[in-house]
Write a structure and sequence with these properties.
Keywords: Amino-acid biosynthesis, Aromatic amino acid biosynthesis, Oxidoreductase. This protein is an alpha/beta fold and about 290 residues long. It folds into 2 domains: about 10-110 and about 260-290, Leucine Dehydrogenase, chain A, domain 1 (Rossmann fold, 3-Layer(aba) Sandwich); about 115-250, NAD(P)-binding Rossmann-like Domain (Rossmann fold, 3-Layer(aba) Sandwich). Helix content is about 40%, strand content about 20%. The protein is built from 11 helices and 12 strands. Helix 1 packs across helix 10 and helix 5 crosses helix 10. It is globular.
Amino acid sequence: MTVPQITRSVLVGLIGAGIQASRSPALHMREGAENGLSYRYDLIDTAVRGVGPEALPALLDEAEGRGFAGLNITHPFKQAILPLLTSLSDDARAIGAVNTVLFRGGERIGHNTDWWGFAEAFRRGLPGAALHHVVQLGAGGAGAATAHAALSLGVRNLLLFDLESQRAEQLAADLSERFPDRTVGAGRDLAPSVASAGGLIHATPTGMKAHPGLPFPAHLLHRELWVAEIVYFPLETELLRSARAHGCRTLDGGGMAVFQAVEAFRLFTGIVPDAERMLRHFHTMTAAGGPE
């Protein structure tokens, strides 16, 4: 007698604002199927629901009540969610931002897979990049992760810029404490800072479909500068187009999107996914221009 095989079910999702174009559902669900799982990934889009950060407690309750294994968290909630969690991983606590939440036995555990995702993409996409002096735009949840990654990769001097100067100052202070052998500061004048930098990390929403344009005037770019982008929809942002036109080495946001998902998948399921397969799937979706 043949015993029917029981398929393990996994339900996860993503909380963010304006996330209908996210590639995360397709990326996760395909990898789930490849591992023999019944894997469902739902979008919880606060823009569609017409709510803001005040709804986060109810959204977490809803997901936990529906039996979610966990959630990904994206803009603009990676820091707002911190007080709603019962514990944090070492990485999430150090970075001060969460992009992955696990529901385990009544606990809500926050993790940060963004920093590793950016670091892995950078190692692969910009080998040999100059790391002495780097400028970063953005000191929010994503910026906290990319800055941590940059210093972990060996950046010696990091200058942070943010429209909220106090946020850049606070992040610089936190990073200086964690990386006492590096120089980290909050920038004041972008033009001379970019002119003397060997690299630039862009960690703001500018360039997304909902926030088109450049984060600063294109004439500040120069050929000695590498430019790393975190925006991945569209994959070809105006910043990357301008940077390449100025002769810069560039890194798009696709690698970070994939590799943070690789680690989130492992946390959600306990299964180590095939990172190369997920990367191929991402590039296939991008080339086809299909749903995210």
